[in-house]
Amino acid sequence: MSIQVFGMPVSRGVAIGRAVLVASSRVDVAHYFVPAERLEHEVARLREARDAVAAELTALKRDLPGDAPAELSALLDVHLMLLHDEALTGATKVWIHERHYNAEWALSAQLEVLARQFDDMEDAYLRERKADVEQVAERLLRYLGRSEPGAAEVLAPAAGGARDFAGEDPLVLVANDVAPADMIQFKRSVFTGFVTDVGGKTSHTAIVARSMDIPAVVGAREASRLIRQDDWLVIDGDAGVVIVNPSPIVLEEYRFRQRQSELERARLNRLRHTPAVTLDGQAVELLANIELPADAAGALEAGAVGVGLFRSEFLFMNRDGDLPDEEEQFEAYRSAVLAMQGLPVTIRTVDIGADKPLDRMSPTELRHEHALNPALGLRAIRWSLSEPGMFRQQLRAILRASAFGKVRILVPMVAHLGEIRATLEAVARARQQLDDAGRPYGRVEVGAMIEVPAAALMIDRFLAHFDYVSIGTNDLIQYTLAIDRADDAVSHLFDPWHPAVLRLIADTIARANACGRGVSVCGEMAGDAAFTDLLLAMGLRSFSMHPARIASIKQRVLRADTRKLAATLEAVMQADDPARESGRLHQGAQPA
Fold first, then answer.
1. For the ranges 228-242, 410-424, 480-494, 538-552, which has the lowest average pLDDT?
2. Does position 548 have pLDDT exceeding 70, yes or no?
3. Coil, strand, or helix at residue 380?
4. Predicted confidence (pLDDT) at residue 579 exceeds the cutoff of 60
5. Burial grade of 173 (CB within 10 A; 0-12, 13-18, 19 or more)
6. Which homologous superfamily is 1-27+166-269 in?
7. Which residues of the chain are in CATH 3.20.20.60 domains?
């Protein structure tokens, strides 16, 4: 029977495919596809985990004190029996062989199947046995986590060949939530859409889905519970609706919409290499946001005139705490610089913390692991300054890459003058260390992200120290409105049109332009065509966005007359409801 699940639309378009569930677990589980030659290795890992846990449970039973309750010994017997039950480990092998899931993912998928079977049982005693199955599975998952392959092995199968063994049917991912590190793995994989129970418009699932230009619905609440493995799904990324097992008529309607979207995408694609110039002759710089060096080629192909944001923290993830050293970072940054063929590359220093934790934390971070509000804690430049050795390594790697092309450093979440001084001193020290070692580097501009209201209000002081600024609208909105953008309970209050947010953005752009400093927007607003006219009216001439959004933003730029837009800006800024008033701006844009 067809059902509908409602959530928040975060990446437009239509996706149709079979559901692939990533089950939630109290144990962190890696999810990646395994090539055919590694399948038996994954089965061996599962067998090794089963034998190790069986030995552990047997030892526990043997060492029980003589006065231990008989029920405790019986419980261990139950767990041993479940451990060797084909319904658990045997069926898990099927997931490995047929779906090419890694052992952890296969086990958590089978656990989800069993949990639903127990929930449907009428006998209360049998329903309660679900907890025993979960405990056994989580023992296995913990052991598997200790034997997980390195990051290079994990990413390689997802990067290529996944389509070869995923079958002919398109696949869509369904999960309670997807961690940023997992999103990077899935970005290189086979999914044509995403559905999550939680999240908001600027959650990392949403951001990566937009960067992949695939439909996504987040905040769908019970989606991962209502949808079953292999269900046919339609993801309507425009309306925020997921249709489970649609009727043939509905399916055909959405397939028609898919074809229309593909035609529109092909039409926009023809603008790739057209210069972005407004009707009144204003040149506009359209840059790309990337996560990994391999993304640079795609940015160039999409028509980007440079990289406005290289999120370097993704080099630090999926590594089991083994952080990249200076040489590895240098090679990654140089690779991106060379791929851009002389166009500028802006590298943001590592923005770790809050919703992007490292796999293994230092003693300093461990003290903050359970902070009540990690978004306000030790993150971004605060974390870098607390780890001076790591920070200087990254700065030296970036500086060295500048010998191969135009490179800029971007510092996230600066709020205090003391942070500015400490950051610039670290850059100067890194330069001196390279001079002492005789290593070449080029001229590198240093800029700050304006994503804390304090930075926007102190913009004149910031411009006295930095060569340029880049407005990170995602965090600026979060901190201005006191909204945790990762919390779906308050995601409806995340409002880019809020008058306070618009005023901070407009003032930052105006002051930077008046001082002759470069200013760009690299947050989600830059890639949202609904804000293009507004930002042009404010005087913005540099946008940085997901490569997939460049063509649609360029289309808006080509139709815009900035003189007419500027004339109507104040009416929008003074309005109680700027979103409604923004229709005036469109009078400054010409129809297609």
1. 480-494
2. yes
3. coil
4. yes
5. buried
6. Phosphohistidine domain (3.50.30.10)
7. 270-588
Query: CA triplet 472, 476, 478: central angle to 5 degrees?
Result: 125
Are the C-beta atoms of 269 and 551 separated by less than 8 Å?
yes
DSSP H/E element including 406: none
515 is annotated as an active-site residue: no
- Give the chain's radius of gyration (CA, Å): 26
* Tokens read off for 516: 């002759």
Shortest CA distance to 132 belongs to which of 99, 179, 181, 83?
A: 83
Q: Which residues make up the CATH 3.50.30.10 domain(s) of the chain?
A: 1-27+166-269
Sheet of 216-218, strand order: 3-6, 241-244, 232-236, 14-22, 171-175, 191-196, 216-218, 8-11
Q: Per the CATH hierarchy, to which homologous superfamily does domain 270-588 belong? A: Phosphoenolpyruvate-binding domains (3.20.20.60)
Catalytic residue among 31, 79, 100, 522: 522
Q: Which of 250, 191, 248, 190 is nearest to 215 (CA)?
A: 191
Report whether 484 contacts 490 (CB < 8 A): yes
Tokens of 88: 């658990």
Residue 248 phi/psi, 5° resolution?
Answer: -55, -35
Q: What is the pTM of this model?
A: 0.75
Distance CA 58, CA 550 (A): 60
Helix, strand, coil percent values for the chain (each to nearest 5): 55, 15, 30
Cα separation, 416 vs 425, in Å, equals 14
How far apart (Å, rounded) are the C-alpha atoms in residues 505 and 471?
A: 7
What is the model's pLDDT at position 163? Answer: 43
Distance CA 486, CA 530 (A): 22
Q: Catalytic one among 31, 79, 100, 204?
A: 204
Cβ burial of 75 (10 Å; 0-12, 13-18, 19+) is: middle
Instruction: With cut-offs at 50, 70 and 90, classify the pLDDT of residue 195.
Output: very high
Phi and psi torsions of 44, nearest 5°: -65, -40
Is 468 in contact with 430 (CB distance < 8 Å)? no
204 tagged catalytic = yes
- Distance, in Å, from the CA atom of 183 to the CA atom of 193, rounded to the nearest integer, reads 12
* Alpha carbons 369 and 193: distance in angstroms, whole number: 32
User: What does residue 385 show for φ and ψ, rounded to 5 degrees?
Assistant: -70, -25
Torsion sign across C-alpha atoms 5, 9, 14, 16: negative
Closest CA to 553 of 213, 296, 260, 209: 213
